[in-house]
Facilitated trehalose transporter Tret1-2 (Melanaphis sacchari), 506 residues
Amino acid sequence: MEEESMKLNEKKIHVLETEEVQNENKKTFNWAEFLACVSVSTTNLHTGFALGFSAILIPQLEINTDDIGKLSKSQCSWIASSISIAAPFGCLFIALALDRFGRIFTFKFSLWPCFIGWMLIALAFDPSIIIIGRLLTGFAMSTGTNSANVYMAEICSPKLRGSMMSIGSVMLSFGILLTYCTGLYLHWRTVAWIAFVGAFFPVLMTSFWTPESPVWLIYKGQDVKALKSLKYFKNSKYSVGVQESFNELKTIKEKKDLLINKDIENCNIFRRISWHLFKPTVFKPALFMIFLFVLQQFTGIYTFQFHAVKMLQEVAQGIDIKYATLLFGLFRFLLSFVATGVLHNYGRRPLCMISGIIMGISLFISGLCFYSRTKGDESIIITWVSLLCMLLYISAGSVGIMLIPWILPSEMFPTEVKGLLVGPIMAWCNAVMFVAVHFYEDLKGILGGMLGILWFYSFISILTAFFVWLFIPETHKMKLSEIEDYFKDNTIYLLKKKKTVKDQQL
């Protein structure tokens, strides 16, 4: 009897301790997760510099030809799009490196090409040197941001995952804004040196607050290091919460180990990818991401970042382009904070759909204004309406279509194939980005000028919202294992068989 009463008391103590841990976690902000996410998200500073740099570089080179010489139309196009050529190679590199060397090692490696690239750009004496520098920064951009996204998806709790992963968008927006602010008033070489210095932030911050992902450590059999990492991220003095998380991750791994073909796992990377692609939990999210990234790039949201000054000169004639460009950069930066908040409270689906619809409507109205000007209406009201519509287009894109597709692959793919497939999917996205940016002028010519471009991007924006409504599942506040379970039995979201996905209402 005494032994039974002692066991009952132990159980009560264990329950009380567990409840105390849960109450502590509810009340206390997890600074460990936050600092780790901010540290790896600082890589998006140089991503923002890389995306915005061509927008200020090309107009300067077209005016001041004494530095490099007069640029041809082809050279301008290559300078703008070259980072998108190298980005797929960075994505394929992480497919090899993420699982083999770890999330943090891969992230830190990406910083070296960044330093070299910006140094080459700052010291360039020929357009080809600028292009080589842009290629290196593009490789660093894709390697750093994608390894950071995988890392954040694995260390964050389901409730915080969306808002933590959107910190990268804040950093990226700040990088673009800083590029616009400095580039409109400083020489482009000075801007390149500022970007070079900015690349030191990830080096400094990841030295203090980024232990390796406990999920990766467990999958590699490094249990002692995984426990240590979990204790850091749980940010709790109670070991019971850490042990429960560790046991849960170990159980998931052991179940998956029973399903893994050991012979296949020892094969080369291409055969492993081919084998995994036969699983519904892998090929379904892969197909969705392939189509979603094509739609995202042809909404024009990234093309605008590369050609912001030139596009605004056509759409908003008569308005000071310097101030208009700064206004766009500032709005995007402020809205990145809004995105962090809404991703914490609302689902991915409604944000993407609302974003696409607003983008489509605003571009259509901007196209109508542009059409009116071609018919001789030079009213300042028409010009301002067109500018405000473009501002609304960028604003809507910043909290939805521009941000969320980059988060989804790290959430949707199972842990055992995340390192293998996030890279190729992102490589595909960057390849499509290259096509969209590099052939922008050609597409504009085919569609009959800026009016055709505006209405084409408008149509694709609406089509993207429809695609998300039909196929993309809600991942907000879901565990990664729950998202994986959804794809086992469901394809079309509207016809889902199981209620494993909680519909989030605005």
